[in-house]
């Protein structure tokens, strides 16, 4: 009877290992399937801008100055001399070719980065923060002005 018990324990242990391997495989397959829509490639680019005003990016305030903006897939990395930001962004395309530029919404005296175009027809669109949505709602009388800064 002792011999019958040992093989059963070995089978149970092997079954547990196989179940874990199957679970890991399914988890990885699910991760790949869910991330597939995120893998839409926008052309990776490093762009340089001289921004003459204070602006916000996803709730972070950045001072006037020279900035490097890197786009890669669905992200945007902004580096300045003093501060920077990292943002998840939505890849976007234009039907007509466009120059490399940064597009800002101006409400009153406040600027918010909205889009970065790498040139051609590819760019990224930044999500609106709650503060941006609230500002737009409370400033109904103030029109939203679009300001574009060309890459250097």
Describe what this molecule looks like in 3D.
There is one protein chain. This protein has 152 residues and is of the alpha+beta class. The protein folds into two domains: 2-38; 41-150, no CATH class. It is built from two helices and ten strands, in the order H-E-E-E-E-E-E-E-E-E-H-E. The strands form two sheets. Strands 2, 3, 7, 8, 9 and 10 form a six-stranded mixed beta sheet that branches. Strands 1-4-5-6 form a four-stranded antiparallel beta sheet, with no helix packed on it. The chain is elongated and about 70 Å long.
Secondary structure layout:
Blueprint: H1 2-35, E1 45-51, E2 55-57, E3 60-62, E4 65-72, E5 75-80, E6 84-88, E7 90-98, E8 101-107, E9 110-125, H2 130-138, E10 144-150
Parallel strand pairs: 2-9
Antiparallel strand pairs: 1-4, 2-3, 4-5, 5-6, 7-9, 8-9, 8-10
Helical content stands at 25-40%
Secondary structure category: alpha+beta
Question: Span between N and C termini?
Answer: 82 Å
Total of domains: 2
